[in-house]
Amino acid sequence: MRRVAWVVFFFLALVALLAAGLTLNPREVPSPLVGKPAPHFALPLLQAPEKTFSQKDMLGKVWVLNVWASWCPPCLVEHPVITELAKTVPVVGLNYKDAREDALPWLKRNGDPFQLTVYDVSGRIGIDYGVYGVPETYVIDRKGVIRYKHIGPLTPEASQKKVQPLVQELSR
Amino acid sequence: MKAGIFWVAVLFAGICWAEDPNLEKRVTGLAHELRCLVCQNQTIADSNAPLAVDLRNQIREQLAAGKSESDVIDFMVARYGDFVLYRPPLKASTVLLWAGPFLFLLFGIWFLIRRVRKQALPERQLSEADRARAAKLLE
């Protein structure tokens, strides 16, 4: 009888362990960049190649960096959420490994919520920001420090429960 | 003059060929140590995801620029975290990962010893009556 109890106990413990494992998202790898200064870049604008923009230009402001591409279907999924978010905080787009002739019509079709969009055609700046699953969203504080990183499409819950409260707290 | 240019060209080609295999070997060696974050169970050497290709080029660029293997690894860890390493470092947060298999082994040995002892015990206990019976049978 005791033996049966032990077997059942081990079985249930194993089930609990595997169940816990299944609820974790293996794609959400904690970023070492949270708490560190946003890596430097100076990139041409998507709409105006002759102008450049640097993350330094946003010092003193709380802002959001959103990495997107026209070839990325989840970016289209999160687009309404980003559009909503952009009403409360400046959102800068980072157009990642895309082509101007695809990216510009994409913005025209789906609306352009971005304060401006920088053009990272080689993906080099993406590497500096540890991008591996487009879209990705970063919250950056007044001192230029990354405070939060969201990997994958920004859900309305993540936007309302994490990004927006954090932006409000940092803007205080 | 023409011959001179020819030999300079040959020399350069020779240098390029001599340099490349060595560099490629180092690039591949490093690429086997790093995880592709897009397809998480592959190294960036095995994966053909665009990010893996970019990161291989990044490794090649940095090694060609004279950086060491550990510089490149630090570069990757700074951007993607320890998860990018196929061999995780021994840290407070990874102790269970490293010690886990040995803990399971110790548990298995303890369990086995217990089982063996339990089974061995009844055989030794012969009652007086059993001994008498055995003696009678052996006569």
Summarize it.
The complex is a heterodimer of chains A (172) and B (139). Chain A is elongated and about 80 Å long.
Shape estimate of chain A: elongated
**Biggest β-sheet strands, sense, barrel of chain A:** 5 strands, mixed
Secondary-structure element pattern of chain A, one letter each: HEEEHEHEHEEH
- CATH arch. level architecture of the largest domain in chain B: Orthogonal Bundle
Distance between the termini of chain B: 115 Å
Work out the oligomeric state of the chains in this entry.
Answer: heterodimer
Classify the beta-strand content of chain A into a percent band. 15-25%
> What percent of the residues of chain A sit in helical stretches (DSSP H or I)?
25-40%
Strand order in the largest sheet of chain A: 5-4-3-6-7
State the secondary-structure class of chain B.
mainly alpha
Q: Tell me the helix content of chain B.
A: over 70%
CATH superfamily of the largest domain in chain B: Cytochrome C biogenesis protein
Number of DSSP helical runs of chain B = 5
Basic shape of chain B: elongated
Pair of chains with the largest interface and how many residues each contributes:
A-B, 15 and 15 residues
Runs of chain A in which pLDDT lies below 50 for 5 or more consecutive residues are: none
What class do helices, strands and sheet pairing of chain A give?
alpha/beta
Rg of chain A: 20 Å
The total strand number of chain A stands at: 7
Uncertain parts of chain B: 14-18
